[in-house]
Amino acid sequence: MTTAVYTTAEPPLERDAVAVRVRGLVKRYADVTAVAGVDFDVARGTCLGLLGPNGAGKTTTVEMLEGLTRRDEGEISILGLSWERDGREIRERIGAQLQETKFQDKLRVREILRLFSSFFRAHDDYDTILDTVALTEKRYAFIKTLSGGQKQRLSVGCALLNNPEIVFLDEPTTGLDPQARRRVWEIVERIKAAGGTVLLTTHYMEEAERLADDLIIMDHGRVIARGSPAEIIATLNAESVVQFSCATVGDHILTEEDLAALDGVNAVRQEGPTIVLTVSHAQDVISGLFTLVESRGLVLDDLRTHRPTLEDVFVSLTGKSLRDG
Fold first, then answer.
1. In which order are the strands placed within the sheet that holds 94-97?
2. Which CATH number does 18-233 carry?
3. What is the CATH number of domain 237-307?
4. Residues 168-199 pLDDT 10s
């Protein structure tokens, strides 16, 4: 199978030019403020990853950028254009894969591509798109016969039909097997290499670390962290993360204060039966932990260490894992 080469519809701008600019973005639903004054820029030729627990305001933000949801306050600039004045031109120059797309069951895959291509003045060859998303063998299959992952890949293909300069991908690899997920990653990397821009929401930390040049973490409609993956991980100020569980014996217990008092421990949190320590000196902490556990007559179970990750930062900031509801 050949690999399609992604090219943008227009000659790319300079790599550091701003493709998307957002200032003071607000969206309210009755008494709920879904997005509460968000500001960010997305540089041309880069991927911005948008992370946050369910209900953080990610999808609402993306839908406002795509022109699907009207904002209540703030400014949005897409390729230097505004939705109020330049809606048709923006639609010709962006692609959008929604979190969930409902296709007609009785249409065939190629018919779906033909339908979506009719929305644009110019579009890519259907077979090229099918090859890009690895659906060539399904070109004449009815939608109702596709798996969830195949429908997701078709949704990504529809977003690429017009060779967009900016591609919005809202959880594009949810439901995909590892091989198909990596295929989508390759597509994102080719878009960037061709000078295109990607705004990606995802529930997969590995995906965010691999694809995103910059990240924004949202919670309760606000931006609570931003920077490159390395910069955000560095905010933990930790050399390592130590995880363990401890079997209690009688009335003996370990308290958060006991653990925080160990030399080298920066923070303590509990995830079910597991205790997680972010530490600056792992060897000193582990030695002190063994001494403390022995002095209390307890049993230490399942001790592990790892370098800090985005997941560690995310849980530290939001108090929940990325896939929590």
1. 94-97, 166-170, 197-201, 47-51, 214-219, 222-227
2. 3.40.50.300
3. 3.30.70.980
4. 999 998 878 888 888 889 889 988 988 899 99
